[in-house]
Amino acid sequence: MKRVDDFRLKFGHKEFVPIMVGGMGVDISTAELALVAAKLGGIGHISDAMVPVVSDNRFDTKFVKDKMREFKYNVANTDKSMVKFNLDVLADATARHVGATMSAKRGDGLIFINCMEKLTMNGPKETLRVRMRSAMDAGIDGITLAAGLHLGTFALIEDHPRFHDVKLGIIVSSLRALQLFLKKSARTGRLPDYITIEGPLAGGHLGFGMDWAEYDLMTIFKEIRDWMVTENLNIPLIPAGGVFTGSDAVAFLEAGASALQVATRFTVTKECGLPEKVRQEYFWTSEDNIEVNQISPTGYPMRMLKNSPAIGDGIRPNCEAFGYLLDAKGNCQYIDAYNAEVALHPEAKKIRVMAKTCLCTQMRNFDCWTCGHNAYRLKDTSHRRPDGTYQLLTAEHVFKDYQFSTDGQVSLPALEPAP
User: Fold this and answer.
1) How many folded domains does the chain comprise?
2) CB of 274 within 8 A of CB of 28?
3) Whole-number Å distance between alpha carbons of 241 and 263
């Protein structure tokens, strides 16, 4: 019986272990997690979601506080169109995060950065351009284009000296989305180096409607695979979403995939950026406690734990400090939902907003507990202690379990003494 280690992902003449750890933001896929994947010969991701926040936490900068001070006068104003990001600060924060990560990289693997188009930041093209170019300047190995169709994204960096050097990939959830991207990007003379095909069981934002359960990753993968053959396109395909064991991965590799992207099992590792309390929530959760809802202001459905504190929390919009989801006109669906509830309950000191959530604040506070469909199986990957908590795993253990396991098995870690 084959193992993931019997296959290799090829980029040109170089080969890698065909395991890609997904880029979970905000700093959930930490540099430490990405570095483990790269050390072991695979591919790790960091995320550029809310990178000034990440810089403040990691490098003791004051970017968020400075932005809040600059726009404090506007806190009570429902019009957020004047709340802008300083592009030099954005470039500085990206350079710090990427530069420090790349300087620490060891081993034969690669480190990519996950770049979300839906982080519109009241300047969609300008902020996206700065984030990508700064990451390229800082030495990133690759950029994965996520959370959007990215129809004009290649054009934003086509004049960069590393445009043909950095690995560029796109996440799609349908053949149609891929075709649109390839058609729009054709004028740059640059094909993506890899295509991540994200299915309906993935964590966080989904590229489907609320009919997501009607779709199947293997079916979508085969449709794209077969179309690629007819078009004579030889681009690595990397399925993602619901790949819980090495055997799950092998099934795709034998069907023609070049690698697999995985994430959920790494949320309960020591290297993950989630607080200990939240990692235990992931261990404890049941299948019934996982839902796909529509509270994200991005417009995409999102999978998370039902007991996430973000759900229904009527926190005041923090656009002056954050504002990562403000569109080009300074609008956000959470602001609209919040203002509607305030209008209905003008005397209330505390309101509940069920329609949407302030994703910036909730992700920054680790109160939006996004997860893959199989998160309820995490309890089967570790040891439960007498006090009811679970032993955290190491990223190396999880990576190697994917790499070497067979027969649908998950290997438990060596038992550690209780803390």
Assistant:
1) 1
2) yes
3) 8
The distance from CA 370 to its chain's CA centroid, rounded to whole angstroms, is: 10
CA 72 to CA 152: how far, in whole Å? 33
CATH of the domain at 35: 3.20.20.70
Q: Does residue 419 belong to any structural domain of this protein?
A: no
Distance CA 28, CA 362 (A): 13
- Token couple for 245: 């064991």
Pairing state between β 167-172 and 142-146: parallel
**What whole-number distance in Å separates Cα of residue 281 and Cα of residue 369?**
9
Is 90 within the bounds of a domain? yes
Separation in Å, CA 164 to CA 117, 137, 157, 236: 21, 13, 10, 17
3-class secondary structure, 247: helix
CA angle 321-326-328, nearest 5°?
A: 130
C-beta separation of 201 from 166 below 8 A: no
> What are the pLDDT tens digits along the chain (419 aa)?
899 999 999 999 999 999 999 999 899 999 999 999 999 999 999 999 999 999 999 999 999 999 999 999 999 999 999 999 999 999 999 999 999 999 999 999 999 999 999 999 999 999 999 999 999 999 999 999 999 999 999 999 999 999 999 999 999 999 999 999 999 999 999 999 999 999 999 999 999 999 999 999 999 999 999 999 999 999 999 999 999 999 999 999 999 999 999 999 999 999 999 999 999 999 999 999 999 999 999 999 999 999 999 999 999 999 999 999 999 999 999 999 999 999 999 889 899 999 999 999 999 999 999 999 999 999 999 999 999 999 999 999 999 999 999 999 999 999 998 77
Closest of 195, 59, 66, 52 to residue 127, by C-alpha: 52
4 close to 71: Cβ distance less than 8 angstroms: no
Judge if the upstream peptide bond of residue 26 is cis by omega within 30 degrees of 0.
yes
In a domain, 266, yes or no: yes
DSSP state at residue 212: G
Q: Are 81 and 329 in contact (CB under 8 A)?
A: yes
Range of the domain at 48: 4-404
